[in-house]
Amino acid sequence: GESVGLHLPTLSVQEGDNSIINCAYSNSASDYFIWYKQESGKGPQFIIDIRSNMDKRQGQRVTVLLNKTVKHLSLQIAATQPGDSAVYFCAEIMNSGYSTLTFGKGTMLLVSP
Amino acid sequence: EPEVTQTPSHQVTQMGQEVILRCVPISNHLYFYWYRQILGQKVEFLVSFYNNEISEKSEIFDDQFSVERPDGSNFTLKIRSTKLEDSAMYFCASRREDREWYGYTFGSGTRLTVV
Fold first, then answer.
1. Sign of CA dihedral B9, A110, A63, A7
2. Beta strands in B1-115 (DSSP E)
3. How near does any CA of chain A get to the CA of B36, in Å?
4. Which chain B residues have a beta carbon less than 8 Å from that of A91?
5. Which of B45, B107, B109 lies nearest to residue A101, judging by beta carbons?
6. Measured between CB atoms, does A99 come within 8 Å of chain B?
7. Do residues B15 and B83 touch, judged by C-beta distance below 8 A?
8. What is the pLDDT of residues B54-105, one digit of tens each?
9. Does B107 touch chain A (CB under 8 A)?
10. How far apart are CA B56 and CA A48, in angstroms?
11. Those residues with Cβ within 8 angstroms of residue A4's Cβ, 6 or more apart along the chain or in another chain
12. What is the rounded CA–CA span in Å between residue A68 and residue A88?
């Protein structure tokens, strides 16, 4: 079946670097994408979202890019901080009726001071 | 900031036993969900609940699973006869109808260990 997946299971960066986390999706009918952050022992925390009619969306220190041509989603974190260390998931909405989320497997981001 | 509260944080049960996982969604939310995450794997959808009934469920949500909103505040997931493969983190989530998709708030989860 179709699914959302991630390229890199672990990303290690130095504090202050910019981080890029990637995600590939295969359902061209998905019209909404969300990035979540999950810290140890906690539930997924919303970071940023983007609709399929957009290419880019910026938040505070984070930017999401959507390339529909290659079905690719990325999360850019500027000036990465140790507090950004967590697992990051992309998720897509495949059923807009009840907004069921389909998650990717996750990427662990490790930020060294 | 309002939170989704889940109890217990960790539940250990013997195979074949029934477990009930409890959630208190945010009070003005209308849609409720259960998701689970097997260790090292992605978060998977189990069931959605709206207007006091199941609105959607996944293949995982078979006859051994049930959900209930017994009063105005609690939302429970029952596993009737647990199996080893039910060991996972179970997340409850809720959202407000008028915030569409990005209104999700997740709880911190219940870690279920079946031995």
1. negative
2. 5-7, 10-13, 19-24, 31-37, 43-50, 53-57, 65-68, 75-79, 88-95, 105-106, 110-114
3. 10
4. 43
5. B45
6. yes
7. yes
8. 999 999 999 999 999 988 789 999 999 999 999 999 999 998 865 555 568 9
9. yes
10. 25
11. A23, A24, A25, A26, A27, A90, A91, A92, A102, A103, A104, B42
12. 20
DSSP B34-52: EEEE-TTS-EEEEEEEETT
A77 burial type by CB count under 10 A (0-12 exposed, 13-18 middle, 19+ buried): buried
List per-residue pLDDT tens for chain A, 113 residues long. 334 544 448 999 999 999 999 999 878 888 889 999 999 888 899 999 999 999 999 999 999 999 999 999 999 999 999 999 999 999 998 755 667 888 987 899 999 99
Of A44, A96, A99, the CB nearest to B43: A44
Check if A104 contacts B (Cβ < 8 Å): yes
Question: Mean pLDDT score of chain A, rounded to an integer?
Answer: 87
A44 and chain B in contact, CB less than 8 A: yes
